[in-house]
Amino acid sequence: MTSIDGMNENSVLKVLAETGTDMSHWQTEKHFSSWLGLSPNNKITGGKVLSSKTKPTANRAAAAFRMSAYTLHGSNSALGAFYRRQRTRLGAPKAITATPHKLARTFYSMLKNGTEYVDHGKEYYEKQYAIRVLKNVKKRAASLGFKLVPNIGQGDMDKGLAISAN
């Protein structure tokens, strides 16, 4: 469990003291993170979102996950890159909730399935993020009637894209 970035022996022991090693108490990782109070409690009526705050809880395991997430701000791991991106996008308080949510899901998966944690690194995470953004931009352009084509032969701008109308 200490192979997860941000989790040290102390935080792993705190979480295991609260949850135990038997993950059968929770059907899925979503149930586990909800029990910890790390997943959003969406209150929606008539299609309108009234609130999406996490439920207040005094769970020591959740506090350990939050503290572990806070230590990722300088990490060169995929989880560190995720934390920094969320912090830039959402602000520090929400990033300190989103990252422990991801840590808790990873922790649950490792205990339930007996799998090893594999960190692909910051570069891999950022490359996957760039691919996902490009895919979404292409889909958005297609929905507006445009097609993105590679802009080839522009010197250093070989990776640029040109937009053409259909």
Polypeptide structure, described:
The protein has two domains: 9-113, no CATH class; 123-165, no CATH class. It contains six helices and four strands. It has helices spanning 9-19, 29-36, 60-70, 78-90, 92-113, 122-143; strands spanning 43-45, 48-51, 146-150, 161-165. The longest helix is centred in the middle third of the chain and has 22 residues, at 92-113.
Computed Rg = 20 Å
**How many structural units, i.e. domains?**
2
Q: Please give the count of helices.
A: 6
Largest beta-sheet characterization:
2 strands, antiparallel
Query: Based on the structure, what is the oligomeric state of the protein chains?
Result: single chain
Order of helices and strands: HHEEHHHHEE
- Arithmetic mean of pLDDT: 81
Cα separation of the termini: 52 Å
Low-confidence stretches: none
> How many beta strands in the DSSP annotation?
4
Give a summary of the structure in a few sentences.
This protein has 166 residues and is mainly α. It folds into 2 domains: 9-113, no CATH class; 123-165, no CATH class.
List the topology elements.
Elements: H1 9-19, H2 29-36, E1 43-45, E2 48-51, H3 60-70, H4 78-90, H5 92-113, H6 122-143, E3 146-150, E4 161-165
Antiparallel strand pairs: 1-2, 3-4
Helix pairs in contact: 1-3, 2-5, 3-5, 4-5, 4-6
